[in-house]
Amino acid sequence: MKIQFLLFGLLILLFSACKKESYNPTKQATIDENKIQAYIAANHLTVTKDPSGIYYQIITQNPGPHPSVADSDTIQVTYTGKLLNGSVFDTETVTTFPLASLVPGFIDGMKLIGANGQAPYSRIFMIIPSSLGYGSAAGEAVPPNSVLIFTVDLIGFYGK
């Protein structure tokens, strides 16, 4: 009987050691923040942290109005999206998106810059924590819980 309890205990221990750790948003936020701070320091960046949680630097500000999700705006942009290791996961020359269809961090950044359809276009550099990006969802080019880096030119926008 003692051997059965011992074997049962060993099985429980074995299965608990193999159990996949569940996603913890607080722990992931700390991991992201540490990675972002290391990236900022290593690249000697001067960025601002928005209350939403994104880090950004406005490189060029166009004096035009700012896009709004509430108005169901569609934005016209060029952009490059990278991971912290520098690998490019997406790049687009002039393209349009409904603003509300983008990841929350991208939306937050677009609200910070203006556009009137004329050059010079607003340009923003953004570092987006995973919770405001794709989160724990895995994609072909973006691993789960990835911090995203975008450089975006906002050419213009229009409401529905």
What's the quick description here?
26% of the residues lie in helices and 29% in strands. The protein has 160 residues and is an alpha+beta fold.
Features:
Chitinase A, domain 3; 3 helices; alpha+beta; 6-stranded antiparallel beta sheet; disordered N terminus; 160 residues; globular
Question: Would you write up a description of this structure?
Answer:
- By secondary structure, the chain is α+β, with helices and mostly antiparallel strands.
- The protein has one domain: Chitinase A, domain 3.
- Helices cover 26% and strands 29% of the residues.
- The chain is built from three helices and six strands.
- Strands 1-2-5-6-3-4 form a six-stranded antiparallel sheet, with helices on one face.
- Residues 1-19 have low confidence and may be disordered.
> How would you sum up the major sheet?
6 strands, antiparallel
CATH topology: Chitinase A, domain 3
Strand order of the largest sheet: 1-2-5-6-3-4
CATH architectural type:
Roll
Number of strand elements: 6
**Total number of distinct structural domains:** 1
Low-confidence stretches: 1-19
Tally of DSSP helical segments: 3
Structural class of the secondary elements?
A: alpha+beta
What gap, in angstroms, lies between the N and C termini?
73 Å
What is the ordering of alpha helices and beta strands?
HHEEEEHEE
Q: Which range best describes the helical content: under 10%, 10-25%, 25-40%, 40-55%, 55-70% or over 70%? A: 25-40%
- Overall mean pLDDT: 87
What's the overall geometry? globular
Strand content: 25-35%
Class in CATH?
Alpha Beta
Based on CA atoms alone, the radius of gyration comes out at 21 Å
